[in-house]
Amino acid sequence: MQKKLQNPSAEIVLACLKEKYLRNEVMLDDHCFVRIISGEVKIVSSDTSQIFGPGDTILFPRRQLSTVIQYPKNNEAYKCVLIILKTERLKDYYSRHRAYEITGHLSAVKAYDKHPLLESYFASLLPYFELHGELPEELLALKTDEAVTILRAIDYNIDIVLADFSEPGKIDLADFMEKNYMFNMSLDKFSYLTGRSLTTFKRDFYKIYSATPQRWLTEKRLKLARYLLSQDNKRPAEVYREAGFENLSHFSYAFKKQFGFTPKEYSKN
């Protein structure tokens, strides 16, 4: 279940998930500023794994490819407040405020310690969720500006993230694919994140691997699934999404076709 302010752009959201366990591959188009109220969330990227709980505040950057797992804790559903920092609003903000001249690149999820500015900000948002109508645009713009101002006050380096409006440049395709093949994304997304058109992505991919992206992805994911089944004593239902498959039936079919037996049979033996 998700409750949000009745604004078409849905930039300020109160999310409450009653499911016991929700797992998704995520790549956001905009930065997301989050305060966890109850439950826990685990965020897994290609090289890190972080868990956040009640009272934690995080900034989830756009174009950050991750697996997000949300679940209840201490008999309380996962609940959080999200402020989606739209690129258009950030561009407007930085047209009025000069960005700090900082060099570098920061793409990982950022966590913030408790701070009076953060506490007062999120406390001020909660009453808005009782509104039955739309949040006035002027107020929405003010609360977004306030969020950015607070982030800049407590994190001098945050302009590396918030003031970066560039699109992905062409990067090392093989390195990216080896680190991120387990994320269940379309080829369009893979090509975009490596700074290529879909046609160029497929051409470059074949030059490196002498195989189509889809065939290579399937084989890599099946090998990962086989490893997880044999090393971590997990059930097929626990493994298929971790290995990048969209559903259990397709995973079971592909696994048997590749190895000659079903994941369940392999797990038992």
The CATH C-level name of the largest domain is Mainly Beta
Instruction: Decide which structural class fits the backbone.
Output: alpha+beta
- Spans of at least 5 consecutive residues with low confidence: 1-8
Largest β-sheet summary: 6 strands, antiparallel
Number of domains: 2
Largest sheet, spatial ordering of strands: 1-2-9-4-7-10
Q: What is the fold named in CATH at topology level of the largest domain?
A: Jelly Rolls
The number of distinct β-strands equals: 10
| Approximate shape | globular
Overall pLDDT:
87
Strand content: 15-25%
Q: In sequence order, what are the helices and strands, one letter per element?
A: EEEEEEEEEHEHHHHHHHHHH
Known CATH architecture of the largest domain: Sandwich
What radius of gyration results from the CA coordinates?
21 Å
**Fraction of residues in H or I helices:** 40-55%
Distance N terminus to C terminus? 40 Å
> Number of helical segments?
11
Question: Would you mind describing this structure in some detail?
Answer:
- With 269 residues, this protein is an alpha+beta fold.
- It folds into two domains: 2-162, Jelly Rolls (Sandwich); 173-268, Homeodomain-like (Arc Repressor Mutant, subunit A, Orthogonal Bundle), CATH 1.10.10.
- It is built from eleven helices and ten strands.
- The protein has helices spanning 87-96, 116-125, 137-154, 159-162, 173-180, 187-193, 198-209, 213-231, 236-239, 248-259, 263-268; strands at 2-4, 12-17, 22-26, 31-38, 40-44, 49-52, 57-60, 66-71, 78-85, 110-112.
- The strands form two sheets. It has a six-stranded antiparallel beta sheet. It has a four-stranded antiparallel beta sheet with strand order 3-8-5-6, with no helix packed on it.
- Strand 1 (2-4) and strand 2 form a beta hairpin.
- Helix 6 (187-193) crosses helix 7 (198-209) and helix 8 (213-231) crosses helix 10 (248-259).
- The longest helix has 19 residues, at 213-231.
- The radius of gyration is 21 Å and the shape is globular.
- It starts with a strand and ends with a helix.
- Mean pLDDT is 87; it is low at 1-8.
